[in-house]
Amino acid sequence: MDVWKYNLVNDTISQNPGYLLPNEMHFDIYIGPDQELCIVGRVDHNYICWASITHCTETDLSVSIINRLLNLNPTMFSTTGYALSSHYEKVMTWHRFSILKKERDGQSQYFSQGTHLYFDTNHRYLAKWLANEISCFYTQESLKCQFRLVDKTYVTILKGYEKLLKREKSVEHYFDTKPLRSILEAESYLRLAKDQDVRSTYLSCMKECQSLYNLYMSKVR
């Protein structure tokens, strides 16, 4: 299967990094509430060599894309925002996990933040295993979301968090709300909520968290 047509990083938007990039990449996996899927091949914190938007149910396609990435010697690079273009803001609201290369027992292996499992980089079924991480992550995180929202009162709690975060724009408030930000970051699975009100309220909370962080960083500089 020729999957290159799915890559949003192409000649048209290719950029010259201007510095030597590392030889290896890791995978950033974004999943939307309707099982939309964005696979990003990230080279470093600035540049990517792959970005595709498909669907979690297209298992064979995901396997083919990951297999292509595992064997890719990238020559074209871009930024996430430039590659995703009009899709960027939407994809950034999706739930995310990464698959990274780590040293374990003297060997370089892939580590999934989704299930905390390690995978042999030389195994013949590596692409299939990594693609399976996508469905495993979506299933377990969706269940977390369902259990969290089994009682509708949690929506009211979220709105209370939102109101609290908006109460004040100051460095002091940034530090005061640190425990709350930690709670919200751990509940990122709410990005998969079927209820639009839940998702929008959660994303509003995270936007306020980012605003407070930006305020703090501005003061520090």
Describe the fold and architecture.
44% of the residues lie in helices and 18% in strands. It has 221 residues and is α+β, with helices and mostly antiparallel strands. Strands 3-2-1-4-5-6 form a six-stranded antiparallel sheet. Strand 4 and strand 5 form a beta hairpin. Helix 1 packs across helix 4 and helix 5 packs parallel to helix 8. The longest helix is centred in the last third of the chain and has 25 residues. The N and C termini lie far apart (50 Å).
Task: Give a quick rundown of the structure.
With 221 residues, this protein is of the alpha+beta class.
| Annotation, overall tally of beta strands | 6
Terminal-residue CA separation: 50 Å
User: What Rg do the Cα atoms give?
Assistant: 19 Å
What would you call the shape?
A: globular
Average pLDDT: 95
Across the major sheet, the strand order is: 3-2-1-4-5-6
